[in-house]
Every structure is written in C-alpha cells, then in structure tokens.
Amino acid sequence: MHDHRTAAGDSAGPALPTACDAAGAGPAGASGAAPEKEAAEVRRFWGRLGLPGLVDVHTHFMPERVMHKVWDYFEARGPLIDGLEWPITYRRQEAERTALLRQFGVRAFTAMLYPHKPDMARWLNGWAVDFARRTPDCLHTATLYPEPGIESYVREGIEAGARVFKAHVQVGAYDPADELLDRAWGVLAETGTPVVLHCGSGPAPGEHTGPEPVARVLARHPKLRLVIAHMGMPEYEEFLDLAERYEQVRLDTTMAFTDFTEGFLPFPRRALPRLSALGDRILLGSDFPNIPYPYVHQLHALERLGLGPEWLRAVCHDNATELFGL
Ligand SMILES: [Zn+2]
C-alpha cells in the first residue's frame, strides 16, 4: 500500500540515481526479533504444511532512492490515515532484504514498482531488468502508466523477460479503463502476463479506485490475468464478485487479515466461505519490506482464518507456482 505520490515527489524522475542511500538503512527493524529467530518461525510455518517454501507475489524492490522516499513517507506518520503509525520493519539495505527473504524460504518473489507520473515507467522498467538479472529468484517485474508509447514499452518489457506487471491506480491517479491503457491491457491479456493491480480504495481512496473502473477493464479484456492487490480492501466483496465472474482474476493477500489492517479495514467474516471457494485464485502477498509488523504475522493471519492446510498450501505456494510456471 504505497501512496508515495507526495513522497516520491518530482525528484524521482527518469534520471538514474547516482548513489544508493546506504545511510537510510535502519536498525534491526521494528519486529524486535533477530533475523535468525524470525526466519526459523517462517520456515516452521511452511515446513508444517509440507511445502518446499513460499512464493510471495507482492514484495517491493525499487531504485534505492525511490524506496527511501516511500519509507520516509510512511514513517512520517499518518499521511494516509490521520495519526496512523507505520514503522517500516525491514528498513534495510537491498542485499540484506533479499538475503532475509531467502532465509525465510521465499523461493520466488517480485519487485513491485510503479510510477506516479508520466515518463517514469520506462526508467523503472530499466532498473527492474537489472534487478532481475542480479536476483535470479525475483520474478522479473515491470510497470506501466497511461502515456504515449506505453504499448511499445510493455511489449519490450515482456520481450526482455518481464513475468508480471504492477500498476497502482491510487498512486498513479489514473482511470484503469483509460483509453491509453487499453492496448497495453490487450497485450498483457494476449500474452497471459499477470498484472498486480492496486485498485481498492484502501488504505486511502483515490479518484479512480474501487471495483467499477476495473469492471470496465475486464468487460473489454475478460482474459486479463489481473491480481487484485490487498484483496481489494476495503471493497473486499465487490472484488470477490469480479473474481467469481472472471476466471482469470486473482487476489493477493497483501496486508489483509493482519491485526494492523483488521483494526481499520476489517475483512467481513461473512465472506469467508467465498475465500475458501476461491482457494485456487488467492496468492500470498506480503508488502515486504514496507510493513509495520514482522513478516511471519501475515502468515499467521492467513492461518487463523481457519480455512485449513490445503487452502494455505495453495495460497502460500501452489497457486503462484502454477500461475508463473515455476
Ligand atoms: Zn504494495
């Protein structure tokens, strides 16, 4: 959930960053647990399920300068919801963050990144090519924005090996059904490339968030492999409607069901049977590293839904390995 519109500001433009802000790497994180101890807890979770590890479809890696601006924004306290504290648990250098995911046993993860203005997506995609090259367990991620040239850079991204796209309706402040995006959605649908879309109105609404514009996109591109980020919070049920209607629509669990989110955008208990029925289309997402609690809490939050080990195995591993052909 990264509204870094203000945070990323105008300085996060297309120029390549010249230095990575090592100075911003914080202390051991707010979880209080030593990495080894927390890693052991995460591994116990998937070990108990008989899984070979986890696949996390919603983790953030971005150029360091952009990442630090996102962190500063969250930690400034209450930019999204007045007074809400959002300490970044994993405010560490990139190499430490990838190492930690590996210690957790996350076999594959993504590098969710997204522009908040024109002429930025191509630059981010260039960075992501390099990140994927040096991070073999990262599912090469790309992004887009409604602007001239989008169709060609989306095609180029796929040709360069992108396996998933990320788009953020609230940060980008655009209508996902914008005409400029139409051809790009077409290319992604036709190539079967999944798109993680932050389109729900939580934690903060935007002019174009909510299910209605997404329904218009799907009416035109019913085969689009859309992954609704954050379970579509807070419009959980409306986005479940779309997943029930379109068989290529999936949802990621990112931050949903956690104590943090349940405190202000609770998932409606009456929709639990629908979660169970859609068990083959829900994918583990965490928002690592930008989360205000330890990683393992997302896993425990899924477990306490009480949907059983088979559901957890599908959500935490099998659905994503199938989707990405891992
Ligand atoms: Zn996110």
Structure description:
The strands form 2 sheets. A 6-stranded parallel beta sheet has the order 4-5-6-7-8-9. 42% of the residues lie in helices and 9% in strands. The protein is globular. Helix 2 runs parallel beside helix 13 and helix 6 runs parallel beside helix 8. It has 326 residues and is an alpha/beta fold. It has 14 helices and 9 strands. The chain has helices at 5-8, 35-48, 64-75, 94-104, 121-134, 150-159, 169-172, 179-191, 211-220, 236-245, 259-262, 272-277, 295-303, 309-324; strands at residues 54-56, 106-110, 138-139, 141-143, 164-168, 195-198, 226-228, 250-252, 282-283. It binds zinc ion.
Tally the helices.
14
Rg, Å, rounded: 18 Å
Order of helices and strands: HHEHHEHEEHEHHEHEHEHHEHH
How far the N terminus sits from the C terminus, by CA atoms, comes to: 26 Å
Name the overall outline: globular
**Uncertain spans, ≥5 residues at pLDDT below 50?**
1-31
Number of strands: 9
**Structural class of the helices, strands and pairings?**
alpha/beta
Largest sheet: 6 strands, parallel
Strand line-up of the largest beta sheet: 4-5-6-7-8-9
Mean pLDDT: 90
Fraction of residues in β-strands? 5-15%
Distinct ligands, ions and cofactors found in the model: zinc ion
Residue share in helices? 40-55%
How do you describe this structure in short?
This protein is α/β, with parallel strands linked by helices and 326 residues long. It contains 14 helices and 9 strands.
Summarize the topology:
Elements: H1 5-8, H2 35-48, E1 54-56, H3 64-75, H4 94-104, E2 106-110, H5 121-134, E3 138-139, E4 141-143, H6 150-159, E5 164-168, H7 169-172, H8 179-191, E6 195-198, H9 211-220, E7 226-228, H10 236-245, E8 250-252, H11 259-262, H12 272-277, E9 282-283, H13 295-303, H14 309-324
Parallel strand pairs: 1-2, 2-3, 4-5, 5-6, 6-7, 7-8, 8-9
Helix pairs in contact: 2-13, 6-8
